[in-house]
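Q: Structure for this?
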Amino acid sequence: MTTTSPAENLGAAQTTTADDAATAHVDVAALSEYLLGRWPELRRKARERAGDPRFHKDESLTPAEHRERTLEQMREMVAADDKIAWLAFPERMGGFDEPGANLACFSELVAADPSLQIKSGVQWGLFGAAILHLGTPEQQDRLLPGAMDLSVPGAFAMTETGHGSDVQSIGTTATYDPATEEFVIDTPFRGAWKDYLGNAAVHATAATVFAQLITNGVNHGVHCFYVPIRDAETMEFLPGVGGEDDGLKGGLRGIDNGRLHFSGVRVPRTDLLARYGSVAADGTYSSPIESPGRRFFTMLGSLVQGRVSLDGSAVNSAKIGLAIAVKYGAERRQFAGAGVDEMVVLDYATHRRRLFPRIAEAYAGHFANERLLDLFDDVFSGAGDTPERREDLETTAAALKSTSTAFALETLQECREACGGAGFLTENRITSLRADLDVYATFEGDNTVLRQLVAKRLVADYGREVKGATKTPAGMARFVVERATDAALHRTGLRRVSQAIADVGDPRRAAGHLRDAETQRELLADRVATMVEDVAMALRPAQKAAPDEAARILDENQVALVEAAAAHADLLRWEAFTDALAGIEDTGTRLVMTWLRDVYGLTVIERNLTWYLLHGRLSDQRARTVTGYVDRLLRRLRPHVLDLVDAWGYGPEHLRAKIASGAEAERQEEARAYYAALRASGKAPISEKALRTSRA
Amino acid sequence: MTTTSPAENLGAAQTTTADDAATAHVDVAALSEYLLGRWPELRRKARERAGDPRFHKDESLTPAEHRERTLEQMREMVAADDKIAWLAFPERMGGFDEPGANLACFSELVAADPSLQIKSGVQWGLFGAAILHLGTPEQQDRLLPGAMDLSVPGAFAMTETGHGSDVQSIGTTATYDPATEEFVIDTPFRGAWKDYLGNAAVHATAATVFAQLITNGVNHGVHCFYVPIRDAETMEFLPGVGGEDDGLKGGLRGIDNGRLHFSGVRVPRTDLLARYGSVAADGTYSSPIESPGRRFFTMLGSLVQGRVSLDGSAVNSAKIGLAIAVKYGAERRQFAGAGVDEMVVLDYATHRRRLFPRIAEAYAGHFANERLLDLFDDVFSGAGDTPERREDLETTAAALKSTSTAFALETLQECREACGGAGFLTENRITSLRADLDVYATFEGDNTVLRQLVAKRLVADYGREVKGATKTPAGMARFVVERATDAALHRTGLRRVSQAIADVGDPRRAAGHLRDAETQRELLADRVATMVEDVAMALRPAQKAAPDEAARILDENQVALVEAAAAHADLLRWEAFTDALAGIEDTGTRLVMTWLRDVYGLTVIERNLTWYLLHGRLSDQRARTVTGYVDRLLRRLRPHVLDLVDAWGYGPEHLRAKIASGAEAERQEEARAYYAALRASGKAPISEKALRTSRA
């Protein structure tokens, strides 16, 4: 995801001067339309569904009732004419072959009920997708219809109690028996029980089970098997299958997560999902992919869609929280201000600081997800399915999912606290949404593990680059000199000193510098490049070291790896936001959105100011202007924030928070009228304080 | 809370060298005993109660059942011989006059069920305490027994829908009627409904109601009235009283929060809680406190105990989360390491970084709460009840409560994520605890409001100091010169340059410098002093400015005010931790605890490194050593972290998390045994990968 921004767009960033206040405004309808992205009609339809009360989370249900209702809602989705649930499935089976649009719509479902989103994701995005992506056409024809129309609710049995992130080490085995042409599925010990599986506790009658495929005494690694687990009539476990309910969870209580285990469960040879590996009747294994490692990662590749959609729905959830907190904050008054009325809490500097940068980040996250959807659609529609693009897709999805899910949780918490005690009431939505979103940080790839995956890719890319550049002795010499010069320039602070000299006596020049989009880009990109380079150089000796020493070197750099990945995600989001500015036609809207992009870029820089100082990228003087300039931008954005959250297109049917309904303003109006009438009546008591003052 | 630390204690901080590894250990039993603090027997008893299953949160209950059970648990507490619930009440009424011990014990109750803690707090710490602290001895004798023995469950009706933090602006009125010698309580508009009141939805038969006291046409400000609200037999609202249930909340579902409103409800003149203000039969108002402002703040002063106890229980909750995550992390293995086995996740650098600094901060918070309890006990026992100490108490409680509640929420979230998907299951406790703790951030004083209160006090103190120092022209001149010199020294980086010169070529000296307790103290204290001074100087023009201009100046400095308060709390906690080291007799334990204190101090400095750089307090070279030195300390602490969390004294009956029970290690043992037996049998499949390698 590299980018080139049109010049006029960079220009806009620099002209935030005198008469801008007059120009600045937000065309809410147009911006809202723009945000619908590449599949506006489908997304609109999905958002309408999310606003339909039939699909809303009902907070009054018991967990058991909530589970049943969620399944019922999925059945209604299947029954609906639009068949949005089938967007990703093949046309020949009644689907639409629209993988990107499918995820865009799926991300909207979170506004109805995250349990509905995730249980749908289990059925169609994991169980169904495993058949679609890992099965042969014959297997698709045979097994997909039941998954699509919900006649076969299914579990995706990959994770085990003992192994989550490290799927390669799962313990479940599928041993081929040539005598009967069957695989025998076994759970050899408690740690190999399948765990945390949606649909497994109650509803699933089948599962796509990942197991070590063993035939002729050879373990060919993890493969996926289609395994019926319950009698569809009695809903009793089939022979050899057992399991238990995972019980209550911190959220997503509309999903029946459970555990499964297998003892000598036999499935026909033809129910190994055989696209990437199959076993002949005599037990001979074959695969179109030679390398067991590459085969494994190819099979797991389809999981990327979960990360892409969680990224989108995490951003959407943050938007919902922010819209609620901003609407309430714009009405809620507390403590006297300079005027007659008490002050609206959104006018407090602390409130601006708590909420506005998060509005900017939500926009950055939105645009980054749009581009991720593009990339996903390219790869999965087959339009641009190259190994490089697949790798890009996986890295980008991992970088964005880990960032946006963490962002959503922090944002929802900030919003809940910004609404005070009212934010804690379930009727105001935020705590409920946050509880459901909590697990997004660790499922479909633990965020810390994902960031290491991203960083390893960045380091590997850097390694390839260096290898290319240093193939000749001259190239190597140049590389060494450049690195040494760069380090000297930064470590000794020479670059910083030159900035300080350029800015002497002119703080405006320092601030103007930061407003420039190219400066922001350079600061963000340089940080990623430098962090990756530093950690790559630090890791080099590990390649030739003894295991213990290699482990020590990795240990010393692991935190830096994770930080480099986070910095990479920040850059991706900034680039996406900047690119998106070019598509905004209305000048006033583009101006406000450019301020917002600046807030995003500069708050990222502000968070990492220590790094910029210690690496000599910013002079003290320039660094000192960052916070003040961000504060000025936040004040400038104040008149537009309600428009900015409205443009996300969430109405009361999506927000569903009493405090965001105008009730607070009504109550204040009533109180104001009461006091006015009291004063007019001449019966208003005089305050003791006033009395003492007048006496004195 | 200033402090002087014994020299030997500072010495310990500096000797973390070669043979320390041999000395370093934790005497868990002795440290645990030490942490019991000033009232060890009572605290032990309270912790035993928190471990008793009868008082545990039952996750399977419906909210309605949970509410009933919580009340039932409170009745059991009253029935118990120890009468811990009555510690704060007067001896003459069966209590113990032990205000400090009472809060220490109350903070332990969070380990049983936060709903039980907070509902108890409503009954005895708010409703009962209002009678105790705002009532006359006659009123105490008459009204306290019912509050104490739960024959009168009560609500504390202060907050209104329209006014939370700004209590002075509440709308409920109590108008004196001399004809009947009664007060007439009225809720004039919807915003004046009492809201978020524990006990109000179902159980309360009476309430202590805060209202504007109006007599003879004068409003004497907010006073508290004892108002029966429900018929104790039928539990119907009494005439003129109405209300509704607040419904579901994000947590604390064992508490029946509700709303109340009053229409012409009459209470006898003698039921105005009259310690700080009374009305004679003819309607004449009198008060021992002349100033209405000071009277108001005196009446609200007793609320400080809520903040003191929330501080303690927030720290305790963080400890529970950390103990669970550390115990699981020490057993859970994922991905191959350098050895034969997979790596224990606690050995990952990222995991150390996520959890260990929080262990240090929990200790800092613990010791700070101990000192806060001392201060509270001094004031409320009467042993040291001066206006200055009351003010100190309020400032310290506000600083610590706002810091520890935020810390607890972030820590519980980090712990939940560190446990992966297992952390999301209710059976592993953390999500449930976090949901309950959520509201601690905004009730009993919104954290952002509390921090402003702290900062205003710090700024006022600074003003008094300056005023004193600059009374003479010579003093004024000295002040001006000192400030100018200091600013020049820091702004121009001269001090930093001198550090750089001192450290040249010797990174060890730079790190050694940070290890020194006096350096840490100076860095932390200097930051608070400078921030307060800067903001005080910036606010000065506001005193003489027009309202709009004054508001603008305040707005520009509000974020800095909040940050100064947070820095103050960090310093208080560091001081408390450092003081506590002196009381640890065992050398090995003191050494480990000193490392831990260093981790706390240095991570605070690390978080604020930008400030130290931009204010010229640390040279680049010294700043660059901070992170590396913290990382070294974390590695050094690794062998001791299980001991450090065990010393908190929470057994399985307090943690109640399946993943912290040893089950994970058992499962791994079983898996290991399975694979060993398989290898021994000669029937183990060979991996395709190994086969390919051997063939090649």
